[in-house]
């Protein structure tokens, strides 16, 4: 893609600008087969049905869909369609459909790193200024940044996720570690080492690894991409820097000091949580889902109350003593499908879904933190999530992953070179990652 | 109906000629017509779903084309192939794929032969039981079998470490053990198929020869080596060829178990990643073509090199 | 030749058979056992569940995974049955022509079937994905049925051709001589002879279609056409970070039941079909 194309506003694909070879049989086949999907939208008689592509959760988005359809007073209905579990497969599914100008995609639960790609490809409908002003009111800064591309809001911030440092209170007390101030990776490595325990970090070659590396690089004051908005062949990487090396050093230390625990190279968020629950790790960096999960285990009897009571939480570990970390930023924003036939309704629904009340509900029931600060003050939220204040603070400091339309390539290249974690070396890994990612962006390398 | 895009060379001959030397009787001519009328649709569909896509893939492999960026599609000749063939990842994936193919096929041949012998000789009371049992791995979905093996060896849910007393050993934490599990699941699932092919071959070994060898005082091993195996060479070769080609296309197991983690990518998985994940249609198409060429190469080596006569082995004279 | 057999030999046979049965069923038993584990037991690393429960089956049939699993099951059944039916019908005509008629191009058809059978699916999937998007077959039933034919047609043609070659077609004429009309002769004589072969071919084709994964994940994107093997990758725990082991194993067991039933009922035929079509002297 040339530099010219990328400075344009990014909505060039909107509408039906691409008359592709469409054989007449198409219409027959589509009509006959996907009738079930299409009739819902085409029906003159009933109100339109909006299709909302949701990422997996505990049924919360389906409930929000029901509520907001009800709120519309019968003007529209909302149907949810499930996306796969991991973020990159979610993107694959959506891109494949949207690249075919699929008008049945109305509302999309979108992982922030992929927003630039979608915006640039013209897959997202514009958010009018008045709506943009409304939906960003009182929203944590990181979430707004993650919902924007090229300085414009292209998605509606929905929920904002962040990782905390989870620890065993008993262990920390015994080691005399003061958790009221920011702790560093070095400190927790030392404590875990003394205890013969491990750190529940995610070393699997998947998005989780990028999340980890990005958090460490940004916490050390660096950036994975120095100029993410540049054309792909001119992108400069910020890994061959003290920050990149420091991040690699932490991983190397974890391995060398023997606190990696079993199966680091295949460990994802779920496996980290299991390790922590089983006492295999004294510390863990993970999303807040681990809290409702542990509570559930206590309820069904597979975990002791004492283990749960030992759960402690703090801000994400920092890279240098006395400095604050930049915790990972995750979450989901709502995109409006560029080819949707009911954009007005969709925008309305998106605003309803992201209302403060609904965000609080979603946090309470599904464990996904709100992007609106006000939702944190909900008393029921405080009750369900004693760590709500820490999460809020973490979100305020959180750093997004690189915002580039080529995020998939950047993340994939990073994962390939920083995996397995046992092979990470501050002297060579950043360099390898830089050359692979640049090669991939120039289309000179496979991924 | 005929087309010239297929690799086998006989395409031009297929058009029923209206006047070959020595006029055909009406009956023969109508039989020809009927033959093609009956077999034509199946033939046409087979060509359509394979020949057309591979030609299309070749065409697209000459472009630099990213699905999310269709405006910048450009013709780049063979540069996609150059990128792939100079990239160590391709050779690494090819090595893994060939490794999996050689190991699984070799193990399956031995194991499958043993199974076939058992089924061939088994007393009638156990034969149906054995037959039913080995058909189950054959019929089970590969993805399901991959999940079963993965959950069995995986660190959080697996019973294998508990049974073997291995504690927290991570089978998928390194290339070789991970590949070993992938091979195991592949072997478990496909040995029955190879054993059935071999069973059919065993049935062709004339009993008289066996008896004669016995009379001559040949040991069991000698009989196996001198009588049984030479007489079922065709069956063995067909089994090898089919399994080798099948193993070379391995994808499902790797997708479920490792997703290519720890250098366990196969060539099919690599192609999938470029096309479906990266949406680089040009690069992915070039990989598809290369995978196809590898398969053709294996087939040619078998058929020409080992003189496997597929037609006669398949009862077509 | 196996007339007199010592007890020792008999016991050895039984032991051998037992070993084979264990080999074949062990992974299946494991996944069944997993599917009955309760949420808390899934990570206990034991072979057997401590508190067996139907919880995981409830999840896929009436719980949170229902909307994913049931449409996928419907798609898988529908698509595979149609693909099987189409390929068996087409293969029947082709195999009849190959077995009974003399025409040039017979070998070409069989070699084409061979080439198609060895075709790597991944090579077809990229162009098909692109083409299907262009003509609107992406994420539809026909969009999967057509590529499934490339998997099922070749083996159907071989297997049926092998079966048909063994049918004593002269009996048809004999029946006609005895006064039957040609339709009667066909229905009363040929159909009963050919039916088992056709049926066996259908089962084998169904297995192959049922097994597909690459096309399933690449050419679909919603419940409109996603088959079960692809849907297994979509199950989810309470959040997207949690492994849905329970739901996956329960679904895996459910989709294994039909193939096990078919195998149990028709093992003799399936073996005959596979060996017949494959190697025939």
TrEMBL record, chain A:
Basic residues bias (residue ranges): 8-21
Annotated Polar residues bias: 414-437
Stored Gene3D superfamilies: Periplasmic binding protein-like II
A Pfam family the protein falls into: SBP_bac_1
Name of the protein in question: Extracellular solute-binding protein
Keywords: Signal, Transport
Family as reported in the entry's similarity comment: Belongs to the bacterial solute-binding protein 1 family.
TrEMBL record, chain B:
Topology in membrane: Multi-pass membrane protein
Transmembrane segments annotated in the record for this chain: 34-55, 89-117, 129-151, 171-188, 281-303
A Pfam family hit: BPD_transp_1
Principal cellular location given in the protein's record: membrane
Residues of the ABC transmembrane type-1 domain: 94-302
Keywords: Cell membrane, Membrane, Transmembrane, Transmembrane helix, Transport
Domain of life: Bacteria
CDD domains: TM_PBP2
Region Disordered, residue ranges: 1-26
Residue stretches of biased makeup (Basic and acidic residues): 12-26
SUPFAM superfamilies recorded: MetI-like (SSF161098)
Compartment(s) where it occurs, according to its Swiss-Prot or TrEMBL record: Cell membrane
Family listed: Belongs to the binding-protein-dependent transport system permease family.
Name of the protein in its database record: Sugar ABC transporter permease
Annotated source species: Motilibacter deserti
């Amino acid at each position: 893609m040339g530099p010219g194309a990328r400075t344009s506003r990014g909505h060039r694909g909107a509408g039906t600008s691409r008359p592709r070879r469409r054989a007449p049989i198409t219409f027959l086949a589509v009509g006959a087969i996907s009738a079930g999907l299409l009739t819902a939208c085409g029906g003159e008689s009933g109100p339109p049905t909006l299709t909302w592509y949701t990422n997996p959760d505990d049924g919360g988005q389906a409930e929000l869909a029901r509520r907001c359809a009800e709120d519309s007073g019968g003007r529209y209905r909302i149907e949810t369609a499930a996306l796969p579990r991991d973020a990159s497969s979610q993107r694959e599914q959506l891109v494949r459909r949207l690249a075919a100008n699929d008008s049945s995609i109305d509302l999309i639960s979108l992982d922030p790193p992929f927003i630039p790609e979608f915006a640039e490809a013209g897959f997202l409908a514009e958010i009018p200024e008045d709506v943009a002003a409304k939906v960003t009111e009182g929203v944590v800064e990181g979430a707004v940044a993650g919902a924007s591309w090229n300085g414009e809001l292209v998605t509606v911030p929905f929920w904002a996720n962040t990782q905390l440092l989870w620890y065993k209170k008993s262990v920390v007390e015994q080691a005399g570690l003061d958790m009221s101030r920011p702790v560093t990776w070095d400190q927790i490595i030392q404590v875990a080492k003394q205890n013969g325990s491990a750190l529940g970090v995610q070393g699997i070659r998947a998005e989780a690894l990028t999340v980890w590396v990005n958090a460490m690089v940004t916490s050390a004051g660096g950036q994975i991409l120095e100029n993410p908005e540049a054309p792909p062949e001119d992108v400069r990487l910020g890994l061959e820097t003290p920050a990149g090396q420091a991040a690699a050093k932490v991983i190397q230390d974890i391995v060398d000091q023997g606190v990696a625990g079993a199966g680091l190279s295949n460990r994802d968020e779920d496996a980290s949580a299991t390790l922590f629950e089983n006492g295999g790790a004294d510390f863990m960096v993970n999303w807040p889902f681990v809290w409702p999960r542990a509570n559930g285990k206590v309820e069904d009897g597979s975990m002791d109350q004492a283990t749960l009571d030992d759960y402690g939480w703090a801000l994400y570990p920092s890279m240098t003593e006395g400095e604050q970390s930049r915790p990972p930023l995750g979450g989901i924003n709502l995109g409006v499908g560029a080819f949707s036939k009911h954009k007005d309704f969709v925008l309305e629904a998106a605003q309803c879904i992201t209302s403060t009340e609904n965000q609080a509900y979603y946090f309470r029931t599904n464990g996904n933190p709100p992007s609106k600060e006000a939702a944190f003050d909900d008393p029921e939220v405080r009750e369900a999530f004693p760590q709500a204040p820490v999460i809020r603070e973490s979100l305020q400091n959180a750093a997004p992953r690189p915002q580039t339309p080529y995020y998939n390539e950047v993340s994939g290249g990073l994962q390939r070179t920083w995996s397995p974690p046992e092979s990470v070396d501050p002297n060579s890994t950043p360099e390898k990652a830089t050359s692979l990612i640049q090669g991939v962006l120039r289309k000179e390398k496979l991924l | 109906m005929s087309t010239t895009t297929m690799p086998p060379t006989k395409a031009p001959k297929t058009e029923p000629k209206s006047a070959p030397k020595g006029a055909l009787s009406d009956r023969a001519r109508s039989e020809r017509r009927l033959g093609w009328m009956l077999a034509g649709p199946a033939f046409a569909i087979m060509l359509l779903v394979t020949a057309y896509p591979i030609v299309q893939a070749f065409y697209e492999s000459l472009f630099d084309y990213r699905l999310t960026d269709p405006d910048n599609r450009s013709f780049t000749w063979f540069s996609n192939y150059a990128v792939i063939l100079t990239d160590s990842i391709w050779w690494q994936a090819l090595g893994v794929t060939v490794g999996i193919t050689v190991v699984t096929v070799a193990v399956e041949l031995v194991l499958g032969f043993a199974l076939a012998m058992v089924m061939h000789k088994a007393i009638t009371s156990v034969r149906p039981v054995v037959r039913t049992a080995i058909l189950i791995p054959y019929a089970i979905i590969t993805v399901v079998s991959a999940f079963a093996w993965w959950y069995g060896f995986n660190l959080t849910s697996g019973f294998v470490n508990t049974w073997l007393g291995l504690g927290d050993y991570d089978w998928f934490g390194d290339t070789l053990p991970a590949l070993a599990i992938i091979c195991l699941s592949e072997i478990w699932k496909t040995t029955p198929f190879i054993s059935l092919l071999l069973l059919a071959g065993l049935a062709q070994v004339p009993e008289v020869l066996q008896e004669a060898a016995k009379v001559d005082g040949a040991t069991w091993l000698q009989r196996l080596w001198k009588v049984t195996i030479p007489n079922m060479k065709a069956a063995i070769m067909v089994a090898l060829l089919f399994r080798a080609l099948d193993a070379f296309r391995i994808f499902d197991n790797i997708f479920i178990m490792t997703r290519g983690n720890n250098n366990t990518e196969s060539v099919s998985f690599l192609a999938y990643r470029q096309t479906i994940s990266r949406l680089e249609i040009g690069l992915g198409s070039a990989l598809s073509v290369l995978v196809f060429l590898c398969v053709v190469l294996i087939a040619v080596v078998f058929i020409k090199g080992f003189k496997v006569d597929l037609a006669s082995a398949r009862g077509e004279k | 030749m196996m007339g007199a057999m010592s007890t020792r030999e008999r016991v050895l046979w039984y032991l051998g058979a037992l070993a084979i049965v264990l080999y074949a069923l062990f992974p299946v038993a494991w996944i069944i056992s997993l599917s009955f584990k309760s949420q808390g037991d899934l990570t206990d690393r034991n072979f057997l569940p401590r508190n067996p429960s139907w919880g995981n089956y409830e999840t896929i049939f009436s719980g949170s995974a229902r909307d994913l699993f049931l449409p996928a099951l419907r798609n898988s059944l529908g698509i595979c049955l149609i693909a099987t039916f189409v390929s068996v019908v087409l293969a029947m005509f082709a195999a009849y022509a190959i077995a009974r008629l003399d025409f040039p191009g017979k070998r070409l058809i069989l070699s084409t079937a061979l080439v198609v059978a060895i075709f790597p699916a991944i090579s077809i999937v990229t162009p098909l994905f692109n083409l299907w998007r262009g003509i609107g077959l992406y994420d539809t039933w026909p969009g999967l049925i057509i590529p499934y034919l490339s998997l099922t047609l070749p083996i159907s043609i071989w297997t049926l051709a092998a079966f048909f070659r063994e049918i004593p077609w002269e009996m048809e004429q004999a029946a006609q001589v005895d006064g039957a009309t040609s339709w009667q002769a066909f229905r009363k004589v040929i159909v009963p002879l050919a039916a088992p072969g056709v049926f066996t071919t259908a089962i084998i084709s169904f297995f192959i279609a049922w097994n597909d994964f690459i096309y399933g994940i690449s050419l679909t994107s919603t419940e409109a056409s996603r088959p079960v093997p692809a849907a297994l990758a979509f199950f989810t725990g309470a959040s997207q970070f949690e492994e849905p082991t329970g739901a996956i194993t329960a679904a895996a067991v459910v989709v294994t039941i039909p193939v096990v039933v078919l195998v149990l009922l028709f093992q003799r035929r399936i073996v005959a079909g596979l060996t017949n079509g494959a190697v025939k002297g």
